[in-house]
Amino acid sequence: MDTQETEKNDIPKRIYFATSFRRWWLLLAAVCIIIVGVYVFLIKPMAQSSAAKKGMNVQTRSVPVTAAAVKKGDIALYINGLGTVTPLNTVTVKTRVDGQLMEVLYKEGQIVNKGDLLAVIDPRPFEVQLGQAEGQMARDQAFLKNAQIDLQRYRVLWQQDSISKQQLDTQEALVRQYEGAVKVDQGLIDNAKLQLVYCRITSPITGRIGFRLVDPGNMVRAGDTNGLVVITQLQPITVIFPIPEDNLPQVLRRFKTGGQLPVEAYDREQKEKLATGSLFTIDNQIDTGTGTVKLKAMFQNKQNDLFPNQFVNARLLVDVRRNATIVPSSAIQRGPQGTFVYVVKEDRTVSMRPVSVGEVQGIEALIQTGASPDELVVTDGADRLREGVKVEIKGQGKETSRKDPNK
């Protein structure tokens, strides 16, 4: 009886809790509906309106760029190579006789001409030798003269049958012996005179004197390996530089015609032109390790701007393309679809234009297809552009051939 009464008393409580739980769920659902409605009808339209205005501002804002005009003209095609200045002649001046170095008549760094006197070796030992040889020569000449007179007498006596043929033959041999002695004496005299000439050391070439290697007063010998001084020829001078083997056929075709191929020498930074010369010769083999072939260019070097063993950037002119379509190389852009340029249209918007690029020479590039003369192309600021974006041209390159239509 008690259990049944307890269950009867719990039924109203269960109904109450179930009813309260259902009411809370209905209230929560109503709040969610209200929040969704506010977002859909108030917040979202406002956000879309703000984004649209912002997008309009982006679309209407002009991107500052620099542009230049496509032009028609001639473009020179060069082959570049890192070269070394190499003199035609470098001579280590050495003594050809042994003796004491008496005088040095040059200054370090001086330009000397062929035949200029550079140094003097003590000549006195060779002067003594010359005197001895001349004395020996005089004695042997006297003997020869006496023997020749005797020979004439013997011939007369032999014809008179006063002496034997053997005596005549002996006298003829004696004359020939003295003649040989005279020739030996003459050789000794010539040798002594030659040694005296060698005592005066002269420059074998025209060039620039290096540092002095031996000071006056020192004993020098013909067998010394270092020599007295080094002379290097500066005018003319050559530059040896390599080019890729793929460019060799083009160079050979031009070289075989006999015409001169101009070569320019620039400094390390390729900003200052040091000298202008021409191609002199081509090496006889390709370096298989580097795939290059060496060329030698000749420069007159009248201002001595090129110095031996100096590194220079050599540029060989191999061809000139006439009436070509040229744009600044900075205008060429590259993407997944290939090379292209941004062309500025009359309404101040840009259009992406695919182009076919030929040779690129420094700040200029040859365009085969895709661009026409007098069109403006973007040279700076292209990284912020896309199709149809409006631009504001802040400056134009020197290549521009028409005015900006927006000014």
Overall description:
- This protein is α+β, with helices and mostly antiparallel strands and 407 residues long.
- The protein folds into 4 domains: 1-61; 63-76 and 323-396, conserved putative lor/sdh protein from methanococcus maripaludis s2 fold, CATH 2.40.420.20; 79-87 and 232-320, Efflux pump adaptor protein, beta barrel domain (Elongation Factor Tu (Ef-tu), domain 3, Beta Barrel), CATH 2.40.30.170; 101-223, Orthogonal Bundle (Helix Hairpins), CATH 1.10.287.470.
- Helices cover 34% and strands 34% of the residues.
- The protein contains 4 helices and 22 strands.
- The chain has helices spanning 2-60, 124-159, 165-198, 248-256; strands at residues 63-69, 71-87, 90-93, 99-104, 111-112, 117-121, 200-202, 207-209, 219-220, 229-232, 237-244, 262-266, 273-282, 292-299, 311-328, 333-335, 338-344, 350-354, 356-361, 364-369, 376-380, 391-396.
- Strands 1, 16, 17, 18, 21 and 22 form a 6-stranded mixed beta sheet that branches.
- Strand 16 and strand 17 form a beta hairpin.
- Helix 2 (124-159) runs antiparallel to helix 3 (165-198).
- The longest helix is centred in the first third of the chain and has 59 residues, at 2-60.
- The protein is rod-shaped and about 175 Å long.
- The chain starts with a helix and ends in an 11-residue tail after the last strand.
- The model is unreliable at 52-59 and 398-407 (pLDDT under 50).
